[in-house]
Amino acid sequence: MVDRPQSDAQNLTRELAQHVQDTVHEVAALAATRICEQVPSYRDNADPGLREDVAAHCRDVFDTFAHSLAQDQFPSRDDFRITGNHALRRVTQSIPLADFLQAFRISQSTLWESVLDIARQHPDLQAAATDSVKFIMGVIEAGSTIAAEGYLEAQQFLLADAARAARDLVDDLLAGKTPTVGSRQATLRTAGLELGSTIVVASGLSASDGGSRQAIVRALGATGADHTRTRGLIAFRHGEFIGIFPADDGSSDTVTQGLTHAFDTLRAQRIELAIGISTVHRGLDAVPRAYCEAVTAREALADRPGVKPLNDLTSFEYLITKRDDTARRLIDPTVRRFVEDDLAADRVYIDTLEAYAKANLNAKAAAETLYVHGNTAYYRLDRIAERTGKDLRRFDDVLDLLVAVKLLTPRGPSGRES
Q1: What Pfam families does UniProt report for this protein, alphabetically (predicted)?
Q2: By the 8 A CB rule, do 170 and 233 touch?
């Protein structure tokens, strides 16, 4: 075989590049068809413009290959500037990154097949076709890297933009403002909410910092089985996440199930949440009231990890959770001294009082609960009555003491009742 002069080889390479350029539209259409047939997220996508978007992306990449071949130089990052726009489109079309890269590989295979087909039709271009492999590999290497980077950047941009939109919308709803801007109304619809929706609001705090926010968002966005999947609007404000969820069945049960699943998922990742859930309300104008309920339910956990629907609280527990300063000032000074002294000691009298109340004012039953002799329980109850001036045979007096204990028990370092 006689070696061709370098100028002849360059001319043949340019000729091959021209053939590639001449068939770009046809080959790009074929690549788009294969991608939309072979990749599930493309095949099942509802966007009617997806196929043409894919063909346009293929044309851009194939043009880059033809240009590199004609110029005898590897493609640069600048040659793939348009790829970022296509990556953004794929993110908005719900195409996963793995499928996006699979589509890129399919397009390159189709391009290589077209080069071989040109070589078969023009035998004098076979050597140029063989040499063109290095340029195809350059396109694959540079193009796939830039495509992945562009996709991730687009994804982060859209996530950040969505987070800002959700936070702004939640701020408006908490302030009692009705969303009138089209984009915010669209965000509501995406969350499954309308102005007259039946809603439940959740408030959650995490004892973890740093990277836990993304994990929390993922867990709240994928709450287990399809029948418990929780739609809704979720935003973070000053370390607190606030969720506004549709309650289409008129109950908070579905939301509670979803958030409990998220709680369990996060606990397995050592992220502890305290989540309060409101009662059901009608209309987005009720968000401020529902939010206050959710915070009250969360505070009933005393910052212990868990999920607490407000419906689980008794009226008594609800009132005590409010910890009103005026209520504290109304506590009898004698009762205050007793409670504060016992809290500073070992709580033995308070524990006995609470066991006595739970045993329906039965001292013997309380003694069994405390694993002490009956006479010990009677002695402690007598001491409580003596020090407070209360008659522990009267329910009102016992209730008064229990309220004082709840109101005066300080919260621990994490905000929890000690």
Answers
A1: GGDEF_2, HTH_30, RsbRD_N
A2: yes
Q: How far apart are alpha carbons 47 and 106 in whole angstroms?
A: 20
Q: Give me the residues paired with residue 204 across strands.
A: 241, 275
Closest CA to 259 of 283, 280, 241: 241
Let me know: does 400 contact 390? Beta carbons within 8 Å.
yes
The residue with tokens 């502890």 is: 272
Are 393 and 361 spatial neighbours (Cβ–Cβ below 8 Å)?
Answer: yes
Sign of CA dihedral 150, 156, 161, 165: positive
| First CA to last CA distance, the chain | 91
d(CA 307, CA 75): 55
* Closest by Cα among 104, 93, 106 to 155: 93
What domains are there in the chain, each with its CATH number?
6-158 (1.10.490), 189-320 (3.30.70.270), 325-408 (1.10.10.2840)
In 229-362, which residue ranges form alpha helices assigned H by DSSP?
A: 253-268, 287-300, 315-321, 325-329, 333-344, 348-358
Under-70 pLDDT residues of the chain = 1-7, 81, 84, 154-162, 181-183, 207-212, 214, 218, 221-230, 321-324, 411-418
Query: What is the token pair recorded at 416?
Result: 């929890």
Cβ neighbourhood burial of 230 (10 Å; 0-12, 13-18, 19+): buried
Please tell me what DSSP assigns to residue 303: T
- 225-245 pLDDT, tens per residue? 333 445 788 888 877 889 999
Token pair of 138 as six digits: 């350059």
Instruction: Tell me the C-alpha distance between 312 and 284, whole Å.
Output: 23
Q: Beta 306-309 vs 273-277: how paired, if at all?
A: parallel
**Tokens standing for 324?**
């009103």
